[in-house]
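Working notes for the structural subgroup meeting. M.R. asked for a predicted model of this chain before we commit to crystallization trials. I am recording the input and output together here so anyone reviewing the notebook later can reproduce the run.

Input as submitted:
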Amino acid sequence: MPLYAGIDLHSTNNCLGISDENDRRIFKQKLDNNLKSILLLLEPYKDKLEGIVVESTFNWYWLVDGLMENGYEVHLANPSAIKQYEGLKHVDDTRDSFWLAHMLRLNILPEGYIYPKEERHLRDLLRKRMRLVRERTSHILSLESMVNRNLGLQISGNSIKCLEERDAEKLFKNPHLIMSAKSSIAIMRLLTEHIKAIEKEVKSQVKLRKPFQSLLTVPGIGDILGLTIMLEVGDIGRFPKVGHYSSYCRCVTTARLSNGKSKGKGNSKNGNKYLAWAYVEAANLTMRYCPQARRFYQRKMEKEGGVVAIKALANKLARATYYLMLRSGSI
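Returned structure, recorded in token form:
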């Protein structure tokens, strides 16, 4: 008799539920997040288990990798796409785990992508770079604002990146403003060092694979953005249509319309926020080098504003690069 398992995973513990083909509960237990304990409890059922569903939470790496390395068929559930069971007043972790097993048995489980372990650390390293870039940008904007507020001067972001700590004394006379400016400049320079170190390390460890080499033909997409897109996408073939890809990149709205009227919105956080950032970055850079993209942005901006216009251009790039990657991978 085939068995199905679901694991409702939390930060410090998890709830394991095993059911049979008739949804009869065979085993249930709440466990600490310890791989050896989980494997020990699963061992008597290993030969009959058709699969194990793990909820995609922030800390799924260790559990999914450990189960797969021990020969289990593992499925990663997408929590935001799972329809909750109706008609129940009381819901707990035990019911959640058996619900995951139930959806696996019925073959209706919305699954997430289990990114290959071999490249996952490089992808996460580039994600760290993105966070550092955002942190540096916040200090640049803060210093721009401080100069404008106190001196009535406009100073560009590129000029601020070139500043050294001693330049703060040339800009300001007040000792408190000097101290504030020096701290921002010091942090920016430190962040820049780490950003460059990460870029150097990633470039030395991984190269663009064939399906992604065509990304470099797009104006505004260089090595770092190309590597970011490649490492976030993984297998481009997992997106059956271009609409699935642009939605995953958060390049489309979540509007639900009926007869021209709004019927609510979906979850705007569905998809990959890192790809969303990459395509917005690419859109901003593409406008500098591609006249057609600049004209498209300007037309859209006049009608709907700059934010909508840059997102629309990002969507165009996402759709175009999808076909580039798909065709390059099939040659």
